[in-house]
């Protein structure tokens, strides 16, 4: 069973990957055969060993998904929804990537600045309460 701490680590790994400069940005598909990635496709790529990868004429598919995140990835990252839905921001992560011209690095910054809007778990692990031994 995946814990909030696991999800937090996975989300932070994804954010680091978005900033890495390793991925060329694309639009409207998770991962094209020209090796272009939507911000959500970067998440699929870094965890692809856990997904069934197939392809069509233009794109790679992750658990049969070509433009939205598979449920397995939503759970693994602790995201609110399949297109990077937010609790209060109007734009999804897919919108920021495809329509609003955000770079992958800017999306990483946006995720960190608006963590509570996109993720179900808190950004930092809860602190353990000190037990008074007196």
Describe this structure in words.
The protein is mainly α and 134 residues long. It has one domain. Helices cover 38% and strands 7% of the residues. It has 6 helices and 4 strands; from the N terminus they run αββαββαααα. The chain has helices at residues 4-19, 39-46, 71-77, 93-98, 104-113, 115-118; strands at 24-25, 36-37, 53-55, 60-62. The strands form 2 sheets. It has a two-stranded parallel ribbon with strand order 1-2. Strands 3-4 form a two-stranded antiparallel sheet. The longest helix has 16 residues, at 4-19. The radius of gyration is 16 Å and the shape is globular.
How would you characterize the largest beta sheet? 2 strands, parallel
Indicate the proportion of strand residues: 5-15%
User: Averaging pLDDT over every residue, what do you get?
Assistant: 91
Give the termini distance in whole angstroms.
Answer: 37 Å
The low-pLDDT segments are none
Kindly name the structural category.
Answer: mainly alpha
Shape: globular
Number of separate strands: 4
Radius of gyration: 16 Å
* Number of self-contained structural domains: 1
What is the chain-wise order of helices and strands?
Answer: HEEHEEHHHH
Number of helices: 6
Sequence of strands across the biggest β-sheet: 1-2
Determine the fraction of residues in helical runs and give it as a percent range.
Answer: 25-40%
